[in-house]
Amino acid sequence: MTTAAKPGQGPLSGVRVVELAGIGPGPFAAMLLADLGADVVRVDRPGGPGLAIDPAYDVTNRNKRSVVVDLKTPDGPARVLDLAERADILIEGYRPGVAERLGVGPGECHARNPRLVYGRMTGWGQDGPLAQRAGHDVAYIALTGTLGMIGRPDEPPAVPANLLGDYAGGSLYLVVGVLAALHHARATGTGQVVDAAIVDGTAHLSAMIHGMLAAGGWQDRRAANLLDGGCPYYGTYETADGQYMAVGALEGQFYEEFLLLLGLEDLTGARKDWTRWGELRERIAARFKARTRDEWAAVFEGTDACVAPVLSLREAPHHPHLAARGTFTDHGGITQPAPAPRFSATPTAVRTGPALPGADTEAVVRDWGIPTTVNDDS
Predict the structure, then answer these.
(1) Residue 22 CA, distance from chain mean position
(2) Are strands 117-122 and 89-92 parallel, antiparallel or unpaired?
(3) Cα separation, 165 vs 202, whole angstroms
(4) What is the residue-level pLDDT of the chain in tens, covering all 378 positions?
(5) What whole-number distance in Å separates Cα of residue 35 and Cα of residue 10?
(6) Are 20 and 46 in contact (CB under 8 A)?
(7) Distance from C-alpha of 192 to C-alpha of 378, rounded to nearest angstrom
(8) Spatial distance between the Cα atoms of 11 and 243, rounded to a whole number of angstroms
(9) Within a 13 Å sphere around the CA of 307, how many CA atoms are in the beta-carbon half?
(10) Distance of CA 178 to the CA centre of its chain
(11) What angle (nearest 5°) sits at the alpha carbon of residue 220, between those of residues 215 and 223?
(12) What radius of gyration, in Å, describes the C-alpha atoms of the chain?
C-alpha cells in the first residue's frame, strides 16, 4: 500500500491520501498532509465546489494531484472506492450521511480496505441536534464561547477571519486525528473513522482558559483579562500614522524594559495594580501615538520588550526575520506560506502548484494501479 520514504520529500512520503473535494478545512488539512510529503489525490466534482477561487490560485491545492469524478453517475462511487482501496487515509467534508448516500461512506470503504483511516471534517460533528444543519466558521466558534472572548467590551465580538474555527479547530485536529489513527492502523491492521468537528476542536483550544475560569483567574467577559486585551501591556496600540504596534510585555523584566523604552519608568508599580490599569493604558496609548509604526519598530528592535509591528499580509513576507527563515515562499508567481513545521531528516517543500481539476488522471491511474480509467470530464 505504501512505499519507502524518499529523502527530501517530507516525513509522510509514501502515504496515500484521497481527498473528496470540498471547501475550507478539508482542503487545508489535505494540503498540510501533502506539504508533509503525502501523495494526496483530490477527487474533484464536475463544475467545482461552491465559493471556489480560480483553481490556479488555490494554494490549498498545492502539492496535490487531481482527478474528476461525478459521484452521482452509476460508476462514480466505484471509481472512488478503487482509490480508497489503495489509500491510507480518506478525507471528506460532507454533512453526516451524505457520503453514505453517495456510496462512499466508511462501510463501503472499509469493505474494500479495512486498514483505511476515514477522516470526517464537519462543523457540528457526526451527531447531536445540530449535526444536519448548515453552518460556517463564525457560527461554530460562536457556540463554543471562543468568539465571545475576542474584541472590545463595548463592541461586537471581532471575527478572526476563519482561522480559529475552520483551520485551528478544524483542519489541525483532523490532521492530528488521521495521523494518530494511521499509527494505530499500522500497528493493528485496523482502520477507523475520525470524527473531527470544528466545535470540538475549537472548544479544546480553550482548555487553559477554562482552567483559569474555574480557578477564578479569568472573568467571563471580553477584554477583562490578561490575554484578551484587558491588560494594558498585552494588546495593540495605534501609532501616529494610523498603524499599530503589538505589545506582549507580560513578565516583570520585559515590562520594565518596555516602559524604559517608552519613557514611562514611573509606571513600574502599575503592572499588578488593576486600579491603575486605566491610567497605564492611557499613557501607553499617548506615547505610541507620538511616533509612526516604523519609528517605534526601530526603537524596540533588538530588545526583549516583546513588542512588534502589526504587519499586513503583503508586508509580512518582507520582514527580515521571516525572510531569513523562508517563512514565506514564491512558487508559480504566488507568494504563500512555506510548509510548516520543519524536519531535519525529511525536509518539506512546495513541490507543485495548485492541482487543476482532472489534470492528473492518467498519472494517478498509472501510479496507484487503478484497474479502470478515472473519469476526467470536467
Answers:
(1) 15
(2) parallel
(3) 6
(4) 444 444 448 999 999 999 999 999 999 999 999 999 999 999 999 987 656 689 999 999 999 999 999 999 999 999 999 999 999 999 999 999 999 999 999 999 999 999 999 999 999 999 999 999 999 999 999 999 999 999 999 999 999 999 999 999 999 999 999 999 999 999 999 999 999 999 999 999 999 999 999 999 999 999 999 999 999 999 999 999 999 999 999 999 999 999 999 999 999 999 999 999 999 999 999 999 999 999 999 999 999 999 999 999 999 999 999 999 999 999 999 999 999 999 999 999 999 999 999 999 999 999 999 986 544 444
(5) 7
(6) no
(7) 32
(8) 40
(9) 30
(10) 15
(11) 115
(12) 24
333: CB partners within 8 A, 6+ apart? none
The grid cell for 203 is 472548544
Q: Which residues contact 117 (CB under 8 A, 6 or more apart)?
A: 88, 89, 90, 178, 181, 182, 185, 191, 192, 194
Angle at 37 between CA 7 and CA 24, to 5 degrees: 165
CA 28 to chain centre: 7
| Nearest alpha carbon to residue 146 among 216, 217, 201 | 201
Q: Quickly count: other Cβ atoms within 10 Å of residue 305's Cβ.
A: 22
| Gap between the Cα atoms of 9 and 6, Å rounded | 6
- Residue 368's alpha-carbon distances to 3, 14, 81, 87, 202, in angstroms, are 11, 11, 12, 9, 36
Residues marked active site are found at 136, 166
